[in-house]
Design goal:
Layout (H helix, E strand, L loop, with lengths): L5 E5 L2 H8 L5 E5 L13 E5 L2 E4 L2 E4 L5 E6 L6 E2 L11 E12 L5 H6 L5 H12 L11 E12 L3
Parallel strand pairs: 1-3
Antiparallel strand pairs: 2-9, 3-8, 4-5, 4-7, 5-6, 8-9
Length: about 160
Amino acid sequence: MKINATHSLIFSAPMVLAMLDGRKMQTRRVMATNKYPRAKCGDRFWVRENLARVAKVTSYQADGTMNEKFPWRWKNAVLPAMYMPKCLSRITFQIGHVGWQRVTDISEYDAVAEGVANIEEYITLWDSLNAKRGYGWKTNPVTVIYTFRRIWFTEF
């Protein structure tokens, strides 16, 4: 598969853990009106996640893993995922399929591929991440679906 481009995506701590455990193989994102998905098959995503300072060392908040190779260099004790530099990413995945659907059309199989136990748990997850932005489950937004495989994981 040809590598076309590399992008970044922010993931919550539970979804980072699901990726590390090999349970998460899909992600859905709200699709902006009249826009195309920003990635296509073959592209890679590097994962952005929250970081924290533990002593003078960088730690990954999802599981507390310490990256002793990278000393903490920020003023605040926590670095939100949106500011995470690429050099600290420990997970990279490659897109195998890109599609779209309304969020409420998700199947039980796809909910599990999203890293949760069932659709009910997925609805709770979806609303926790999207409702405040106006894209709750009941609004049924169109989503872009990225199906992927993890190709790189760095252990520290």
